[in-house]
Amino acid sequence: MIRSRLAPAKVNLYLHVAAPDARRYHPLQSLVMFADIGDEVTLTGQGGLTIDGPFGDGLSTGEDNLIVKAVRRFEAATSVTVDTGLHLTKNLPVASGLGGGSADAGAALHLLRCAFAPDMPDRDLEAIAATIGADGVMCLWNRSAFAEGYGEILRPVVMPQLPGVLINPMVECSTAAVYNGFDHLARFDEIEAKALFDGAEDVVATLRHTRNDLEPAAIRLQPVIADILTSLDAQPQTLLARMSGSGATCFALCATSEAAEILSRRMQALWPTAWVRACTLR
């Protein structure tokens, strides 16, 4: 039985966001990939949720934690009482635009199915994940995809592996605050971009025709994000630099894993208090 699972960081290679609709929700389109680094979720012998790791301090282990929410939704859907515990090793910064909480919940659901309901169809597990949040399903499967609707409509896409670097300046970006700032700026543009990637051989060149619409609002909230992006753009290893999600994590794409390692070391030297990791997006 699988007892541990990676909850990988989600990276939005682009994020186009429309004006809020009648429900006050924002239709969007994004191309998401997942890194080979992230949090780790483990089944344990004790009941309840425990947390450690470099970013575990102060995190709730109560009903507001998405892992606990996933357990409750799993129990309700299966009529099973989960009598084991779950442990989260929190390796990703909190409120960082990397989908950490949803990825943690997705990893927990995989472990729970394996332990308590091995015959549960994927569609049923997906239905539970969908109740966790708009990105619950994408963070359950951890597969490259175009996300549309409010993030819940997914079209899988085959992408090459992309070496890169993630950097977070150790400031939190509230998703709600960033969206509020986005609405205040009222800079709404067309969100459709999938057609750009049909037959595209150079992903980076194609991505230059896209954007992250939340960047300006996030920068107003945390100006250091602009400094990080400027710093990344100045490095010869960087092919493309952009913010992920609602921030504050930024990423750079590189030509090779070796270039990503060099860039990672360079950025750690330039930003000694930041969280910096080389990775591969898949």
Summarize the structure.
This protein has 282 residues and is α+β, with helices and mostly antiparallel strands. It folds into two domains: 4-156, Ribosomal Protein S5, domain 2 (2-Layer Sandwich), CATH 3.30.230; 162-281, Alpha-Beta Plaits, CATH 3.30.70.890. It has nine helices and ten strands.
SSE order and pairing:
Blueprint: E1 4-17, E2 28-44, E3 48-52, H1 66-78, E4 85-89, H2 100-116, H3 122-130, H4 136-141, E5 145-148, E6 153-156, E7 162-168, H5 175-185, H6 203-207, H7 215-221, H8 224-233, E8 240-243, E9 250-253, H9 257-270, E10 275-281
Parallel strand pairs: 3-4
Antiparallel strand pairs: 1-2, 2-4, 2-5, 5-6, 7-9, 7-10, 8-9
Shape: globular
Q: In percent terms, what proportion of residues is strand?
A: 25-35%
Return Rg in Å: 19 Å
* Order of secondary-structure elements: EEEHEHHHEEEHHHHEEHE
Q: How many individual helices?
A: 9
Helix content: 25-40%
Characterize the structure shown.
The two termini are 25 Å apart. It is globular and about 50 Å long. Helix content is 33%, strand content 25%. The chain has 282 residues and is of the alpha+beta class. The mean pLDDT is 96. Helix 5 (175-185) packs across helix 7 (215-221). It has 2 domains: 4-156, 2-Layer Sandwich (Ribosomal Protein S5, domain 2); 162-281, Alpha-Beta Plaits (2-Layer Sandwich), CATH 3.30.70. The relative contact order is 0.18. The chain is built from 9 helices and 10 strands.
